[in-house]
Structure formats: structure tokens, C-alpha cells
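Quick one - inputs below.
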Amino acid sequence: MESFVTAIEGTAINHWVMGSAWAWPIMEILHFIGLSLLLGSLLVIDLRMAGFFRQINIVATHKMLPWVFLGFGINMTTGILFVFGDPARYTANIGFRFKMLLVVIAGLNALWFWWKINPVMKTWEPHADTPMLAKVIAWVSLGSWFGVLLLGRLIPYIGTG
Amino acid sequence: MFESLENSAVALWVGESLYGYPFMLSLHAVGLAIVVGIFVMRDFRLLGLFPGISYESVDSLKKLAWTGFSINAVSGCFLFTSQATMFASSTPFLLKISMIFLAAICAAIIQNRMRDEASAWDSAGTGAVGSVKAIAVLSLILWTGAIIAGRLTAYL
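Output:
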């Protein structure tokens, strides 16, 4: 980890992030906009997949997926820049480590969705209840992403353990 | 007035206890994701995205969005007490509150219009009328502005 930190400190990106007074707040604003897009679209998709809001056509919630990816893309990009800006702080932070673990779990859960749910979802009754597996995947998704949100917000308050 | 608020028992709990501030901040992040996330998706739908999701069904999400709004109104009041004098004189904070107030009015107008007209937009297949689309654009601008001003409150 220490060699990772020294490798990053001194890079051009590190200097740009730390050297400009506006870089950090602008990245934070983008990170908040990204989280709103990611969690907003996921709330609709996952709550419907968990069996709520059956008025909403479950097959059509698929059209919201690009906003999940856009939100995630914005936050991964700004997130990598945060780590480049202050590597020592993030790598040592327990909250950040658990946050990244939850991002990985959320990613694996998304693959599970892609493998098991996505191919059959088109054939589902638009306003019916959902199978148990869909409900499990939906709750794992909501649980891990809201966990990511909470751990991210608490990074300044959680130390190195 | 703000000084006495800052010295109240509640403010001291938020500002000085180990868990008060981070707890309220966590609630504020969860509420933000819910209220902005859902209202933004509603506005996108009003602007013609996600065809296949009926306008009537989008209207059913409003309770969830207002739940997020309420979480943030309450946690926001707690956070305010801890540094009341600073917030009350902070331009970005006052801008943020004004934009949220206006965005809430937009949401109220939109849901009144949707209650009366959503089923007609669905059956006609024409989509939301221009005036509602305009309010949706305004709502998107206001929520984005509230996030920007909210973040800048910590810097300016």
C-alpha cells in the first residue's frame, strides 16, 4: 500500500487535483450528481423488482439502466481522482475499504442480475409480482448501494481503525 | 437568535457528541439520494424518456420522494442548529434553501397536474404537455443547483 501511495504522489493528476482550489469541490459536486442518478434509477428498478410499485411496467424499467451506468461512470471517474488527489488518506481509511468491498459486491450482484434476470425479464407480466430470486437480487442491490452511500459520507469521520 | 439556538442542548448534541453530526449527515445523504433521485427520474419521464413507463405509475412514486424530502428537512434542521450563525449568513446555504423551496413548489404543481392529466397523456400517447415539461426542466435545474450550492456551503 505504501508503494502505491508514493507512486501516486508526484503524478500529474495528483498535482492537478491538489493544486487547484476548485478541482476538489467540483469533483464533489459531480460525485453527488452521479450518486443521485445512480440511486434514483436503481430505486425505481430495484423496488419494482422487489415487488413494490406494481403499477410500474417492470419490463420498461429496463430503459432506466443507462442512467445507472452514467451515474456509476461519473462516480468511478471522480472517485479515482479523489484517490489520486489524496492516496494516503483513502488507502488507510477503514470506511473507504469497506465502501470498495461493497462496490465489488454490488458489481457481482449486477452480474448475477445480468445472468439470471435480464434474459427472462422481457417475458414477465408487466404488472405482476416478481420471483424470489429477483427480490433477493433487488434487496442485495439496494442494501449494498445504500451501504456505499453511507460509508462514503462517513469517510471523514471513520479513521484508520 | 441563532446564537442561542447554537447553544441549545440539541445543537450541542449534534455538534459536539461523537455520533450526532455524522448520524445526521448520513441521514441527509440517504434523503438526498431518495428525493433528488426520484424527482429527477420523474422529470426525465415527463420530458419523454423511458417510454413504456406510464405517467400514472410515475405519479405513484411521489410518496417515496416526499419521504426523502422529509428525512432531509428533519436532519437538515438538526445540522443547521450546530452552526446556526454560520449557515444563516452563508450565501450558498441561503441559495440552496431557496432552490429547494422552489423545487418543492415545482413538485407540488407537477403532481397536481399529473393527478388530473396523467391518464389522458397515457391514453393519448402524446406525452406531457409543454407547460408541465417546462416545470420539469426548471425542477431539474433547481435540484442540480441545490446540490451545487449545498456542496459549496462547506467551502465558501
